[in-house]
């Protein structure tokens, strides 16, 4: 009995330390972005926060790296968003709180809906940041789009018993890279009032398409791919895409 109590106490202490470190990470990232320009130290801290990947045996490193890439993608996107927010302190505070919510509430979720939401957040945020640096070479943007799509898709597909995880993830990355090739030449973006961050159209389009694809994939895996469900998802996605495309400021580019 004493052994069980001691083990429970250690678990509570470990959990408290884990929560405390996750709560401190957004604050530290915020501080490093504020103090250093460019924010290389903030990027280093995000990467360093994944040190536990290399606490495993070397043969598990690659598997662990791929499993943690969505979290890394969100962390790097947060650094980019904070850097792009320039002197907007309120916006930076909101982004920091959002990162804390990701680490403490969304990231620990492991059900299907939680995993899809994690992938959606990672893909959307990283595309927003990537297309703000529009002066990057075309190859870098396309490679970035492919990597973002691959990581997001793999995060979703790996939650199921799927024998073709790598192929499906690579194909989704290819779809995103193809649209990235078009968006690199003509990036339509939406202003968020007076805020310095704009939302590129490709991020919204891929959010809608990704949601519909993930929903149909989930239904197919659970034998719920009925005609009404398929029609409803297709109509929902088509309507949202139509709204995005019709009300786009086609004369504005970034």
Please supply descriptive tags for the structure shown above:
globular, 2 strands, mainly alpha, disordered N terminus
Characterise this structure:
The protein is mainly alpha-helical and 254 residues long. The chain is built from 9 helices and 2 strands, in the order H-H-H-H-H-H-H-E-E-H-H. It has helices at 2-35, 40-48, 61-84, 89-106, 112-130, 138-157, 165-185, 201-221, 227-246; strands spanning 189-191, 198-200. A two-stranded antiparallel sheet has the order 1-2. It starts with a helix and ends in an 8-residue tail after the last helix. Mean pLDDT is 84; it is low at 3-7.
What overall form do the CA principal axes indicate?
Answer: globular
Structural class estimated from helices and strands: mainly alpha
Number of strands: 2
**Portion of residues within helices:** over 70%
DSSP summary: helix tally: 9
Any idea what the radius of gyration is? Answer: 20 Å
Q: Kindly estimate the percentage of residues that lie in beta strands according to DSSP.
A: under 5%
Biggest sheet: strands side by side, in what order? 1-2
Report how far apart the termini are. Answer: 65 Å
Q: Could you state the order of secondary-structure elements as H and E? A: HHHHHHHEEHH
Largest sheet report: 2 strands, antiparallel
User: What is the residue-averaged pLDDT?
Assistant: 84
Q: Which regions contain 5 or more consecutive residues with pLDDT less than 50? A: 3-7
